[in-house]
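Reopening: structure tokens for the magnesium ion complex, inputs below.
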Amino acid sequence: MNLEELKKKQIEQMTRKGNLPKDEKEVVLHLVEEVGEVCEAIRERQKKDDFEKEVADVLWQLNKLCWIRKVNLEDAFLRKLEKNEKR
Ligand SMILES: [Mg+2]
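Re-run output (same inputs, fresh job):
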């Protein structure tokens, strides 16, 4: 499954549950909060399982932001890879 397929599944689930994101500022705050939780997991040397949950939370929020902004993260990432390759 690629990134766009994951985002599609997430949005389908959120639609079904009636909790689609509306406010991008709120989503950005959640994203930053989740990044903070990743930092905490590292600092506190949490188990791999807990760390994985936190990085998945980051992708969850990032997907919401990309959905609101109509960004194809996979394409954007591939462009970034290509740009870095030429450096
Ligand atoms: Mg979290």
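The two ends are 29 Å apart (CA to CA). The chain has four helices and no strands. Marking as resolved unless the reporter disagrees.
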